[in-house]
Amino acid sequence: MGVYKIMINKNNGQILSKTTKKLLIGLLFVASSLSAEQIYATFDVLATKNANVAFSSSGIIDKVLVDIGSVVKTDEKLAVLDNADTKALLHVHQTTLKYAKKDFDRQKKIRNIIDKAKFDSYANKYESAKAQVAYQERLFEKTTLRAPFDGVIISKEIESGDVVSGQMVKTAFKIQSINNRKLVIKFDQKYHNIVKVGDSYKYKLDGSETLYTGIISKIYPYANTKTRKISAEVKTVDILVGLFGDGYITSKAE
User: Which of 176, 199, 218 marks a domain boundary?
Assistant: First the structure.
């Protein structure tokens, strides 16, 4: 690298001043480039939340209440099994509980003058009836399939009349978050000590020239042994799930 000698006099002082400024700007640009490393990374677009929803009880599907593209709220009904038998059995246990409570309440009023073992038997019948009702209520609830979170139905794999089994779980619906997305980016494992949460990621979707910028929110704590790639996540919204692209991580050198 050569050594430059700058001489300032009355005639060329202004010119040298401008040259000096250009040199300083160039040095600053080089310094900035050296302090930030550009790391190539590809990505796939996934929904922030997604789930395969299925019945955990056996039976025949009575009603399917949603379709592909339906927007649903948390706990909204998606489908219902034919539950007439379960409902009838629940009613039987509720009736048993009703009269067990009446017997127990009567015995409580005279507990001081009756045999303790007799009183305990009424208390046991009452508590057992309560437990049976709680159990049957839970079985009855399982005949209705509900949305686990706010989302949109992207797949429907059941119809009314289908038989489902709690022993052989079959996906009924696939649901994903409505707007929230994440880019799962992949970069070479040799940068595992360089890329950090908070680094920026500039990217383009395949076939598009629009440039987007996001921030790395999560880095997976392992490298894929087949691809030798490490994955990370960048949060975004309103991008079609399944698209892909590439870009560059800007990592500040420490």
Answer: 176
With contact defined as beta carbons under 8 Å apart, do 176 and 52 qualify?
Answer: no
- Total domain count, the chain: 2
Higher pLDDT, 19 or 242: 242
Spatial separation of the C-alpha atoms in residues 81 and 162, rounded to whole Å: 9
Domain coverage including residue 206: 36-49+178-252
Give the position of tokens 């395949």: 206
Separation of alpha carbons 145 and 162, rounded Å? 14
Considering the domain architecture, whether residues 168 and 185 belong to the same structural domain is answered as no
Cα radius of gyration rounded to whole Å, the chain: 34
Query: Given strand 144-146, what is the order of strands in its sheet?
Result: 144-146, 77-81, 59-64, 163-164
Residue 171 in domain: yes
254 three-class SS:
coil
Q: How far apart are CA 56 and CA 165, in angstroms?
A: 7
Q: Is the dihedral of CA 167, 168, 172, 177 positive or negative?
A: positive
Q: What is the DSSP letter of 111?
A: G
Asked whether 178 and 239 are in contact (CB, 8 A), the reply is: no
Same domain for 151 and 192, yes or no, is: no
Q: Which two tokens stand for residue 76?
A: 């909204």
CATH number, position 196: 2.40.30.170
Q: Same domain for 168 and 66? A: yes
What does the pLDDT look like over 11-59, one tens digit per residue? Answer: 444 444 555 655 655 554 444 444 568 999 999 999 999 999 999 999 9
